[in-house]
């Protein structure tokens, strides 16, 4: 929880001024400065290979924090902050319209009514859609951008007028995979509590027997009380699994919750999920009764994320940050440039150009090499960084659970990839009863045994077989590419 005190500064756009909610927000105007501020590159010491093994491993942990802004980052920052600030223009906190809207929602809460599809606010706010395959960095990018915007701002007075409020500029929460509206409300309240130090989740948890409509109206009341500026709803594709639950959250409910209060929404989904939304019949409860709702799923800008090609600038830059010169162990007497290109091509094939996979694969590869080179000279067997066979073995031993999903990705079967990658999720909030019910739905996959070898000593800790160059692989490999 981090709260800043309001410092009111006018904007060059006069339309944005004379409003405490807008003047309290500052804007990053320099692209390079902004991107430099969110770029994290490992700082591996030049004496890395002379450090004790323990400190070599702690140095390598820096790779897990590596972050290279994706190409869409700067434009996304401008879009999201622009939508937020402009929405406040029409939601002045000291206006009569705002007070009337708060009173109307409070009355709905008392009566236990949540009027889906009926405009309760002054305007319908825009919706941005962010889509991309799992692992492409869409959620990380959204949340990185949002974290550059102060989330909670404390107001006491504005231009001599009493205005005591804790402004909540944005929140980000996940849709629940079980389709329970109260679980969605709980995720929302938890996100608010984490930002502000409030106890809305506990309050509404104690009111769990009250109606769904009251929980939804409670979400609106909290949003209005703290002048919520923008909402990010993640895992939108979970809504597709709500086919058997007619009372589950729908696109129309999300619109009624936030858009019709004038609060912009950023919705993120897998690419496969977006494609499936287009196939739903008119009137499907996951869309809502309003035929225009699916169009409102995107009524502003769309951002699409994908994996990165071998020759792309992003892949090359991220690879170079994960393999800095201070970590490279060269092979004497061989063409280093040729070895590098061959290694890089295999690294791209194994990681599929997905940033999350790239980072994990690089870390485990470096850790394995450190362990092997820490043995006696007789046992080192000429290991070096650009040894493709060693990279293959690290992948085989450490990516067995996710390899079936990556195999689908390599073959272009994105739907099966998403299905495989999502079988084990822990992001959303469940009751114990709901958790048991959901677990029964998920078949437990058994690991495919490829070879029965007994690892020894340090190899046991790393999951590395005694013969690191043995060409036996899990699904998803082409034998012609094995080295």
UniProtKB/TrEMBL annotation:
Taxonomy, superkingdom:
Bacteria
The record ties this protein, via InterPro entries, to: AAA_22, P-loop_NTPase
An example Gene Ontology molecular-function term: ATP hydrolysis activity
Family annotation (Pfam families)? AAA_22
| Segments forming domain ORC1/DEAH AAA+ ATPase | 125-266
Its name, as the record gives it, is: ORC1/DEAH AAA+ ATPase domain-containing protein
């Amino acid at each position: 929880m981090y709260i800043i005190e309001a410092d009111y500064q006018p904007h060059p756009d006069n339309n944005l001024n004379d409003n405490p909610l807008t003047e309290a927000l500052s804007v990053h105007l320099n692209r390079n400065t902004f991107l430099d501020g969110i770029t994290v590159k490992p700082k591996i010491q030049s004496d890395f290979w002379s450090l004790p093994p323990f400190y070599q491993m702690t140095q390598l942990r820096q790779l897990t924090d590596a972050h290279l802004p994706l190409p869409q980052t700067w434009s996304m920052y401008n879009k999201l902050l622009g939508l937020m600030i402009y929405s406040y223009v029409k939601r002045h906190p000291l206006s009569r319209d705002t007070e009337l809207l708060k009173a109307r929602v409070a009355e709905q809460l008392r009566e236990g009514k949540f009027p889906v599809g009926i405009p309760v606010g002054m305007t319908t706010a825009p919706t941005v859609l962010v889509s991309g395959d799992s692992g492409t960095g869409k959620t990380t990018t959204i949340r990185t951008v949002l974290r550059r915007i102060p989330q909670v701002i404390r107001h006491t007075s504005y231009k001599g007028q009493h205005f005591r409020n804790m402004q909540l500029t944005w929140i980000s929460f996940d849709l629940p995979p079980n389709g329970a509206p109260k679980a969605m409300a709980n995720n929302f309240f938890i996100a608010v509590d984490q930002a502000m130090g409030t106890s809305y989740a506990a309050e509404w948890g104690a009111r769990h027997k009250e109606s769904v409509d009251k929980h939804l109206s409670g979400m609106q009341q909290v949003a209005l009380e703290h002048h919520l500026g923008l909402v990010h709803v993640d895992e939108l594709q979970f809504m597709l699994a709500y086919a058997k639950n007619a009372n589950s959250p729908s696109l129309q409910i999300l619109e009624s919750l936030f858009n019709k209060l004038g609060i912009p929404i950023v919705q993120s989904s897998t690419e496969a999920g977006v494609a499936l939304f287009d196939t739903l019949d008119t009137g499907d409860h996951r869309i809502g009764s309003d035929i225009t709702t699916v169009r409102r799923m995107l009524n502003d800008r769309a951002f699409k994320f994908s994996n990165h090609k071998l020759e792309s600038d992003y892949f090359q830059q991220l690879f170079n940050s994960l393999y800095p010169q201070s970590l490279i162990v060269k092979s004497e007497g061989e063409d280093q440039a040729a070895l590098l290109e061959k290694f890089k091509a295999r690294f791209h094939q194994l990681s599929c150009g997905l940033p999350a996979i790239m980072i994990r694969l690089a870390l485990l590869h470096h850790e394995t090499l450190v362990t092997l080179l820490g043995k006696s000279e007789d046992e080192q067997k000429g290991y070096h960084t650009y040894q493709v066979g060693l990279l293959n073995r690290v992948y085989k031993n450490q990516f067995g659970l996710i390899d079936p999903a990556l195999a689908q990705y390599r073959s272009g079967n994105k739907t099966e990839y998403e299905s495989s990658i999502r079988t084990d999720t822990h992001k959303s909030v469940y009751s114990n009863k709901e958790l048991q019910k959901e677990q029964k739905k998920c078949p437990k996959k058994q690991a495919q045994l490829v070879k029965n070898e007994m690892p020894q000593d340090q190899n046991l800790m790393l999951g590395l077989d005694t013969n690191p160059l043995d060409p036996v692989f899990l699904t998803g490999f082409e034998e012609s590419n094995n080295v």
